[in-house]
Amino acid sequence: MDLGESIQELLHELQPFAVIGNNTGKTSLILTNYMVFLIIAIALTIVFFVVASRKLTLVPKGVGNIAEWGVEFVRNNIVLDVMGSEGMVYLPFIVTVFFAVLFNNFLGLIPGLKPGTGTLGTTFAWGIMVFVVYNWVGVKKHGLVPYLKSFLPSGTPWWLVWLIYPLEVISHFLRPFTLGVRLYANMYAGHIVLGIFGIFVVMSLAALGPVTAVVGTLSLVMQIIMYAFEVFVAFIQAYVFAILTTVYLNGALHTH
Amino acid sequence: MIGSLSVLGAGLAFGLGAIGPGIGVGFVAGKAIEGMARQPEMAGRIQTTMFIGMALAEAIALLGFVLAFVLFGVK
Amino acid sequence: MEAIIPYTSELLVSLVSFGVLFIALWKFALPPIMKMLDERAEKIKDSLEKAEETRVEAERLLDEYKEQLAEARQESNRVIEQGRKIAETMKDEIVAKANEERESMLARAREEIQGEKRTAMAELQAQVADLSVAVANRLIGTTLSANDHKSLIEKFVAEVGSLDAE
Q1: Domain range for residue C30?
Q2: Which conformational region is residue A2 in: left (phi greater than 0), alpha (psi within -120 to 50 degrees), or beta?
Q3: Sign of the dihedral through C-alpha C55, C57, C59, C65
Q4: Is C163 at the interface with chain B, CB within 8 A?
Q5: Which residues 5-34 on chain B approach chain C with CB closer than 8 angstroms?
Q6: Complex ipTM
Q7: Which residue of chain A is at minimal alpha-carbon distance from C12?
Q8: How many domains does chain C have?
């Protein structure tokens, strides 16, 4: 098969399809394949953490050590770095966000499995949830009207308010969508790139010759490199999601 | 006709949409390296901020990528 | 546009699973981990403080020992000095006493010699008296009586003797 058809098939494979239930449109109650992997990843996270919290020793070693290191990384580099010691109240939330995204991303790296965050449903849901949470925290602390008024940077002359305020509100409301799209696109695009290099390798194996051998080996090497890069990107995306959540929370608590 | 135009649109969307973020990410990384060279003790903080800046800049490029795939699927 | 709209079921399932994860972590897994982190930080701080205390204590003891050592050395020096002084005094005493003895021995020896000389002179005087009587006898040709001779001769000898003794 030629390249166009292979790519179509790749894209088709990466689409969510129904595992349980009939797909009668976007609002049907189905369980898609991505949902299965999401549930598997979340279950794995819960099991990992509950087992690790039982095996803690004073001198760290074993499974408990990894979980502790993860929590300490979130605590020092994300929460304390951005918010200071008053952010410790929000530590469980940020830890949950970080590890949910991380485990889902990592699960998708295993060949044959897909990341639970590789579909817009998951990422939009989490983005909107983060948005709701941090706005609610801000409103609870400052009151509704002062919080809405705080969108305006202080010191703007009155005759610019009608222009600046809507811009600020729009850019504020874009935040959940950018969070969701960033995560989804990184995961989805990573899989597509890996798939395309795989297609190149398979095609050059099918029509063996001098040129295709070179192209084939280069593609294989590229695929290995991209695989390593995907691991890096998985971690970075989880980190960025968590730290943007913290930054938004901080911004809502100490109004800009 | 619609099909091939949409594929062209997809290519243009991603291609042109990656110019700005490419320059932006390079700029962020360059400034971060410069800052780290000037003050090595702030290197950790600068690195953190660099990652945040890069993620925010990459998001725009990825918006274009997703749009390309939407257009790719139009029959 | 179709590809952008997410499935509703996906939204629900992901929210529910996030909630389950959040509750599981918040209630069950995070408290032991946070407690362990704090405990370890506490213990490290404690052992660091104790190490610092021990170090300060060890330095203090070291200083004390050094002082004691210096004192002991001073003491021993002093004792040695004293001993040396005593030895010198004794040496001086012994030397002086030896000199004294030598002097007294010499003096005694001189006295003895003087005594012997006197005795010898006395004997000599007696012999000279007798000899001079015999010589005078031969010269004069007559024999004087022993007693007259003796008193005359002794008188002459005494004069000579006193001249001699001078």
Answers
A1: 8-165
A2: beta
A3: negative
A4: no
A5: none
A6: 0.83
A7: A125
A8: 1
